[in-house]
């Protein structure tokens, strides 16, 4: 079974691309969704202990937590030390289920794949990209997003050009949905037979 790591900087179209794989029948593990579930479950008491006042009614308040850790490298590291091992555990369980089900290919949607040095968790890397102007427009259109917050997030991400240089595959999501969907279909046809024959 081939584990395809899907990554890309904020606003590059990663979630949309992940949905395209899922729609094509490829099992997808979404790290962000796993974090959301953990924030409402077993990570909440651990985060409350480390960052008092950031949990409301048993669920981590992402806005409050963001205020505490964004722009503070040490605090962010503390949070990651709690969350990343739990996400990796969920991911391993997902892979085991997919393998048991005979899936030839899975997609691991890991937003910070390069940033957390998770290359050992994947066999190939797909990077989604878009011109900076498109990225900025997409991100600033999000509710509650500010220029300062966008720049703070971007500052802690590996630059897009570096990600592209290290990728096995690239999809430019600014070329439209049909183009991206066709690229996804091409990738599946290249990777799934390899996996089936492994």
Automatic annotation (TrEMBL):
Pathway: Cofactor biosynthesis; coenzyme A biosynthesis; CoA from (R)-pantothenate: step 5/5. Gene3D superfamilies: P-loop containing nucleotide triphosphate hydrolases. InterPro entries: Depp_CoAkinase, P-loop_NTPase. It catalyses: 3'-dephospho-CoA + ATP = ADP + CoA + H(+). Transmembrane segments: none annotated. One of its GO terms (molecular function) is dephospho-CoA kinase activity. It is found in: Cytoplasm. PROSITE patterns: DPCK. It is an enzyme of class 2 (transferase). ATP binds at residues 11-16. Its EC number is 2.7.1.24. One of its GO terms (cellular component) is cytoplasm. CDD domains: DPCK. One of its GO terms (biological process) is coenzyme A biosynthetic process. Pfam families: CoaE. Keywords: ATP-binding, Coenzyme A biosynthesis, Cytoplasm, Kinase, Nucleotide-binding, Transferase. NCBIfam families: dephospho-CoA kinase (TIGR00152). Belongs to the CoaE family. Catalyzes the phosphorylation of the 3'-hydroxyl group of dephosphocoenzyme A to form coenzyme A. This is Dephospho-CoA kinase.
């Amino acid at each position: 079974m081939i584990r395809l790591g899907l990554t890309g900087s904020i606003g590059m179209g990663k979630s949309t691309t992940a949905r395209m794989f899922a729609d094509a029948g490829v099992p997808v593990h979404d790290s962000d969704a796993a974090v959301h579930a953990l924030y409402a479950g077993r990570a909440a008491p651990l985060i409350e202990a480390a960052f008092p006042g950031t949990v409301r009614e048993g669920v981590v308040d992402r806005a409050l937590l963001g205020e505490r850790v964004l722009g503070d490298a040490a605090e962010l590291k503390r949070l990651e030390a709690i969350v990343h091992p739990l996400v990796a555990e969920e991911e391993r369980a997902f892979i085991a289920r997919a393998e048991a089900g005979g899936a030839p290919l899975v997609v691991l949607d890991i937003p910070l794949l390069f940033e957390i040095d998770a290359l050992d968790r994947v066999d190939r890397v797909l990077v989604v990209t878009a011109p900076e102007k498109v990225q900025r427009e997409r991100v600033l259109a999000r509710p509650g997003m500010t220029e300062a917050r966008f720049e703070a997030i971007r500052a802690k991400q590996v630059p897009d050009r570096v990600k592209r240089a290290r990728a096995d595959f690239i999809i430019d999501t600014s070329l439209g949905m049909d183009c991206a969907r066709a690229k996804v279909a091409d990738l599946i046809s290249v990777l799934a037979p390899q996996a089936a024959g492994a």
